[in-house]
Each structure stands twice: as C-alpha cells, then as structure tokens.
Design brief:
The protein has helices at residues 8-16, 33-44, 69-80, 100-112, 125-130, 150-157, 159-169, 179-195, 199-208, 211-232, 235-253, 270-282, 315-321, 326-330, 342-356, 395-404, 434-445; strands spanning 23-26, 47-52, 89-94, 117-122, 141-144, 286-292, 303-312, 361-365, 369-377, 380-387, 409-413, 418-420, 423-427. The chain has 446 residues and is an alpha/beta fold. α4 links the parallel β3 (89-94) and β4.
Length: 446
C-alpha cells in the first residue's frame, strides 16, 4: 500500500525553482522517506538514480578527496550503468549522514553544477548537521518529513470518510459536525492514533485489520531505533539515551507530566542526562515542550529551561513503549480514560510541533493552574488544553484567561467542533489542521 503524502507537493515546488539547491529531506527512520523519493523520481523525472550510502559503503570513495561534481557524476553513472541528465535525472543519496564527504560535496554542486537535481535523505541528519562544522551552510535546502497524518491515513482507510473530513474542514463557519460523520471520524481517528503514523505499521492494519502483525512491525522499528542509539552515540551516552527513551511512558503517565530525572533511575541528575535528551531531540524522536513563566511576547523570552515535558514523535510507538494492547483501546471505551490522556496529549504535541515548525510551550502558575500548551499564532498567544474524558471543565483556563486575557482560548477534546464566545473546541481528529480553525475563529470574533 502506498500512501499519498502531502509533502509530495513541496517536492514538486522544489523541482521547479529557478534558484534550486540540493535538498536534504529530514525525518525519523521508517516514516516513508525512501518510498516517497523513489515515487517522486519515477513519476516526475525521466529517470532517477538511487544510492543508499548506509549499504553501499564502497561508493563513499566517490566523494572522498576531490569534490569535483563532474567526477562524482561520472563514477555514479558508471556504478549504476545509466546516464545522469541535468533537469531530467533525480539523484537520491539515501542515508547521506553515513558519508560526511557526500554532505560536503553538495556545496560544490550548488556552486558549480546547479542544474543537477540532488536530494539527500537521512534518519539522523539532525545529529550529523549539528555536530559538523564543515557542513555547507547556505548551500542546501531543508525539508522536514513526519509520520503519516490522520488525513493521509484516512485517505487509504476510508475514501468516503476522507471526503467528509475535508468537506467540514473547508466550510467557512465553525459549526457542529453531524453525528452521522462525527462518530465514524472518531472511530477511525482512534484506530489511527493507536496504530500510529509509521506507514508499514498502518498498511498492515488497513489492509488486513491485523493488529498482531502491526505490533510486530512496531517492535522491529523500536529495535532499529535502539540499534541507532548504540551505533551513533558513545557507549555511556547510548545507555543514557536508552534509559530516557524507556522512561517516557512513566513520565507521561503522571498527572503532572513535567520530566523528572529521578523517574529514569534513582539518583539521576540533569547534568548526566542532558546530552542524552538533546540527542533524542536532534534525532527527531522526541518533542521537548518547555515551560514558560509568563505568557508574554515573545514566549521564548519567558522560557524556563529547567522545566520541560518530553513527548514521542508519534503515538503508535508510545503505545508500544508503554506495553499497551491497542486492541483493547480500539474496540473498547478506554482510549479517553486510560494512561491519563497521555496518548491524546502526545498527539497534540506532535501536531503542534509540526504546524508551528517548533515545539510549543506549557504554562504553570504556582501549583494553582497548568495549561497543557501555549502557542503564538499570528501574534496571538493562545492557551490550549487537551481534555479526553467527559469532564471538559477548565479551571486552569479560567486562571490563565483572567491573568492574560487572550483573544482566543482552545480546548482540544472528544467533543464536537464549536465556538462559544472566545472558546474554540476542536475535535482531536482535527488537531493536525488546528491552524485552519484558529484563523477562522480569530476572524469571526474580530
């Protein structure tokens, strides 16, 4: 099963740019980067050349020493037995972080041979770029890729429901969605958020409704990540990365989800684990949501670097890390009550991190109130609370609103779409398109 990815449009835009530079497609392992790029090369070019620099170690020599683009192209052409034509051949350098010289060579393609279309992809590019002073800054473009969205999942899972999803998304008003559509969307979303956005896992479930096969695939993905910890980090750091990673379910199961080092192991201190946490952030495996002491502008000016929450980059792996059985959630009523709403909150964190281009913040006030997320949207500081049970009362929101008087407040819950004064309720399944409703609500309230 091949999912239609929204990011495809951005690749087509890159292709037609007059000032195009080599592109680096960044994202976690097994989210579909290779499939996407092969499909792009086959559909939008006369030909494409695919080189996996993690597997084809001997090809590293092509980029060593001289960085002359023509020499590199000649060797790649000989290796794959095909001509490389400017504008007509796409060159895909997969797992490019495994060959530092290939990354550096991109600079010379930009300066000397800009007519060749090159995309480098990698699962740990954030680490490679952040730790390499010789990286060709300003000579490449970046594009971030994420796991499947609910939109992309739904298009394959239920085409008719997918059409309804967009119909109510595209209307000009903010009104309740008819129950005939709302309930099925809720059910499909529940499946999606528990199975997760890894394409191989999702395809197993959609095609066969086979949860066991999906879980086995999740296990393989988690093992691959654990191997990355060992392969790409020093011995002591890799152990700490593993400990932080394994602690995430227990961290998020708390009522107060602030990250606690003692939850990793007794006596753990911040200094010992800061590097491990930063490794996970740069690898794109966690979203670090810091606390703000005040909801001022800019929010970053009020960031408390000592207080933060960590969320996984997608929900399916969190479910597996927590050793939960998705079947009992999909076919039962536990989703909105178990695990203290952590799955839903994690999902909101990953959506906001994607749409904002950075992780959101959270806010607390002297133990009196806590707002799950605070974002700045078009100059407006907007508080967001995530409610997964039937009780959607928001004492903390009352405290926040009284203190900061925001133009709009948001509740993301299993309740229907509505705008009640300055309170916007967004159903969980529309979180990934929250920006549409935020913009519409701000216009309606003036």
């Amino acid at each position: 099963m091949e999912f239609k990815r929204g990011i495809y449009k951005e690749l087509k835009v890159w292709k037609t740019k007059t000032n195009r530079k080599p592109l680096l497609l960044m994202g976690a392992r097994q989210i579909g980067k290779t499939t996407l790029l092969k499909s792009f090369g086959a559909s939008d070019y006369d030909s494409y050349l695919y080189l996996n620099l993690e597997r084809e170690i001997e090809a590293h020599a092509f980029f060593e020493g001289s960085k002359d683009p023509i020499s590199i192209l000649e060797k790649l052409s000989l290796l794959h037995g095909q001509d490389i034509v400017p504008h007509k051949t796409l060159i895909v350098l997969d797992e490019i972080q495994e060959c530092r010289d290939a990354l550096i060579a991109l600079k010379y393609f930009t300066e000397e041979q800009p007519d060749y279309h090159i995309i480098g992809a990698g699962s740990l590019l954030g680490l490679s770029i952040g730790n390499d002073r010789s990286f060709p800054v300003g000579k490449v473009e970046f594009l971030d890729m994420y796991p499947l969205t609910f939109d992309e999942y739904l298009q394959c899972a239920d085409a008719k429901l997918h059409k309804a999803y967009h119909h109510f998304l595209d209307t000009d008003e903010i009104t309740a969605i008819p129950q005939a559509f709302y309930e099925p969307l809720q059910r499909s979303f529940k499946e999606y958020v528990l199975i997760g956005g890894m394409p191989e896992v999702a395809s197993h479930f959609i095609e066969n409704r086979n949860i066991e096969e999906a879980i086995k695939t999740q296990e393989q993905i988690l093992r691959a990540y654990e191997l990355d910890f060992v392969k790409h980090a020093e011995g002591t750091t890799s152990t700490k990365i593993q400990r932080v990673w394994n602690s995430l379910p227990s961290q998020l199961a708390k009522e107060n989800k602030k990250f606690l080092y003692r939850a990793i192991r007794s006596g753990a201190r911040a200094r010992a684990y800061e590097e491990a946490i930063e490794w996970l952030v740069q690898a794109g495996l966690v979203n670090k949501v810091a606390r703000v002491e005040k909801a001022g502008i800019p929010l970053k000016a009020y960031e408390d670097v000592s207080a933060f929450k960590l969320y996984t980059f997608e929900t399916g792996l969190l479910v597996k890390l927590a050793d939960l059985n998705p079947q009992s959630f999909i076919y039962g009523d536990q989703f909105f009550t178990e695990f203290k709403g952590s799955i839903a909150e994690n999902y909101v964190a990953q959506c906001l991190s994607k749409t904002q281009g950075k992780a959101p913040y959270y806010w607390t006030s002297d133990g009196i109130a806590e707002i799950d997320f605070v974002i700045n949207y078009k100059g407006h500081n907007i508080p967001i609370e995530v409610k997964t049970g039937d009780n959607t009362k928001a004492k903390s929101m009352i405290v926040f609103n009284k203190r900061y008087k925001p133009d709009l407040s948001v509740r993301i819950s299993n309740k229907n779409l509505s705008l009640d004064g300055k309170l916007l309720n967004i159903p969980l399944f529309y979180t990934e398109r929250a920006d549409v409703f935020l913009s519409r609500a701000l216009e309606l309230i003036g």
